[in-house]
Amino acid sequence: MKRNSRRTSWISTLISVIDGGSDRIDHHPCPRCEKNRLEVRYLGYPESRLATVHLWCNACLHGIQISRARAPEGMTLYPIKDPASADGIPDFVRHQP
Asked: To pair with 86 at 20 to 30 A between CA atoms, which of 7, 44, 61, 80?
């Protein structure tokens, strides 16, 4: 798969996750390996809900990271000032948006 189409696939998956409106994303397949092992985490500021979103697959450890995104209502927002908020985010291969 070409780089641009990989990027597009990850962005499309992220949009689909956001449209679902919750942290439960086990019904979304990974655009790379097609396993249902995706996780999403928003690290940001609770007052504005401005965040960096991390979406990755626990099976193949590929994903996407987008800065300055707004965390939708219904999604858990982890405070960026708390170092423990990043616990559990693996060192995954980031496909650039």
From this structure: 7
Q: Provide the residue-wise pLDDT of the chain in tens; the chain has 97 residues.
A: 455 676 688 988 888 887 766 555 767 899 999 999 999 999 999 999 999 999 999 999 999 999 999 998 888 999 999 999 999 999 999 987 6
Q: How far is CA 80 from CA 37, 75, 83, in A?
A: 24, 15, 7
Q: Residue 14 and residue 20: Cα distance in Å, rounded?
A: 10
Q: Where are the domains of the chain?
A: 3-94
Nearest-angstrom CA–CA distance, 1 and 32: 9
Q: How many CB atoms lie under 10 A from the CB of residue 75?
A: 19
